[in-house]
Amino acid sequence: MELRDSQRPSIDPRRLVRECGKQALAEVLAATGYIPQSHTLSDVALALRQYHPLLFGGPRGSGKTSLGEALAQGCNLTLFYVPGVEGLTSNEVLGGWRQRAQERAIEQSIGGGTDAKTARTLVWTEEFYERGEFLEAFAYAKEASDRNEPPPVLIVDEVEKLELKIQNLLLQPLARGWANVPKLEGVIGVRRREHMPIVALTSNNLKLLSEPLRSRCFVTWMELAKPEEEVRILCARVPQAGPYLIAATVKITQLIKWDMPQVRDKPGLRESIDLLTALVDDGVTLLTEEIIAEYLACLGKEQKELSSLRKALARLEEAANEEHAEIDGWIEAAFATEERRVRGLEELEEVRA
User: Fold this and answer.
1) Which of 49, 75, 112, 155 has its CA 20 to 30 A from that of 301?
2) CA-CA-CA-CA torsion for 240, 32, 2, 144, nearest 10 degrees?
3) What is this structure's pTM?
4) What is the CATH number of domain 13-93+132-221?
5) Residue 335 backbone phi and psi in degrees, to 5
């Protein structure tokens, strides 16, 4: 759990899209450096307006998890995160009874004069139930609604890696906003859908999900960023980068994606951002074979891929430095827009002064 900053105001994104539209949401995300694709923005806005969980499908590197993180960051919301890890148990995801603590409490009660039958009935309370991260988000949502605060964001990452029985245990809270726990009095969560956590589930393979889980969600498919989108995203995520390095990064990743079939695990946005950030931090001003060789760890993840990239250093250098009418045009347009924005802010400050 990553708590919201109590010193800053929070934004309820559901209320934001209802009152101000999806473009206002886009601006909140852009302030964090996240530039959503048009159809994704529409799907997110729809899910927020309808209080629905949203299931993000798409290949690795398409920005699925980052969107949920950007939403929490931009709106200053508490963030809960459940990683899709093979072998994760239902107790770790949802919760379970603290049996040893229950046994000790029963023994103490009996030792204090309580009859055994009554003692056993006293240990089925929240004091003895340890919530997992998933249900903790719903419990927090109840507390947030009581404080008149916006709900938290809950990310269930790579949900297809959870066993089907665990996927099916998520159905009740996703559909209703609360969960029944056997023997526990009351429910965990909220009764009104507008108070539910803002749930984002991600999956690299929707076919591995249970049909009931998919039916509880709105589903959106995120594609890998197109070159024009990658330019805008890199400008936003690494604002200190100049036009040459941004263009070179995009040209290199596009070459790998479309003209190097031997590299099967293609670089996504995460790799592009990592590469550009490293180049900027190290003060690189020109990409040569020797320089690119020092940064291959940002692009390749396996031994065979790294070997293929090393053999292609000359091609990577050529791609980084050759003219590309479309990419160079998008870079020019992006920096012209940024220059106008900065100039406008400067003029506004002068007027205020």
Assistant:
1) 155
2) 160
3) 0.83
4) 3.40.50.300
5) -75, -30
